[in-house]
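## tool: complex_structure
## caller: assistant
## args:
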Amino acid sequence: MSTSDASSELVLGLLSDALGEFLSGEVLSAKLGLAPTEVYRQIESLRAQGYRIDSRGRAGYRLVSVPDRLTPLEIEPFLTTHDLGRELHHRAVIDSTNALANILASEGAFHGEAVVAEHQSEGRGRRGRTWISPPEQNIYLSVILRPDLPALRAPELTFVAGVAIAESLRTAFNLPVDLKWPNDLLVNGLKLAGILTELSASGDRIGYVVLGLGLNVNMEAADFPAEIASTATSLRIELGQPLDRPLLCAALLSSLEVWYDRWLEEGFGPVREMWQALSATLQRPVRIHLGDDVQGFDGVAEGIDERGSLLVRRANGVLERVVAGEVVHLRPLKHSSSE
Ligand code: BTN
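## result:
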């Protein structure tokens, strides 16, 4: 980072800490040890990059809006984390943020390093599916995590992330975001976001986990391709207005870290409890698909166990433990439509 980048980042940091209030040129100069002309030069440089900064005589400067880009310059001023996203790799286009995060982690990237992209050309979904990733509309984020724990605990991280993201969106927007086993976030039955965790084990321990999140933010109904148009949604569709992606990305990283730290300190119990409280899957009839060549079954989802497996009660009373599979929510009505 050049000295000029560093100065504009500091100016931006102070303006964003002021939460939309004016900060005088003298205060900025004094706090940053920069000459007033240099402060002015940095303000102009930020404006040229797309920041809207009002100026008013002696009152000084006020940050009105930030450009809709997910670069560290936009996200860092809003970050409250100690590790997550502190080292942020931004790409305008990439095949998959999970793919790059895996490469960086295998080359020794630290816990908390994250990759964020404006556009993915080969976004990965679960079970070999594609994650639709149009440019500059959504959040595509992958975080490298290095918990010193047995590899068999890695799947719990999907639930940590689900709870963190759902809670953060519920708090920020008062939106009824709930969770579908194992990795979907839904609003009124429509898919808003998905999580893809990939483990690299070192013997029977976790070497690292790449935790990928795809969140539909500013897509409009017409932007969804036909194959998911009736099953997907975005925050913009649900809230009726576009959202500030950098702010949102910082909030998601913060919530993720709060729940990650809690998981490390207290174990899976609180995560499991919260996941069950926010679940759209429990206490409803479900159809379980176990794979192309394996016979699935129907039942009622009753909970998740201490490792995150789905507990499903069959009509004959037998309780099944589903470790991996696909869940279809069945409507408890006469017709057999599903979501
Ligand atoms: C799913 O619901 O199938 C999981 C989708 C996960 C998508 C995200 S987007 C960011 C990260 N990079 C990827 O290639 N996939 C994940």
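## assistant note: Residues 333-339 have pLDDT under 50 and may be disordered. The radius of gyration is 22 Å. Handing back to user.
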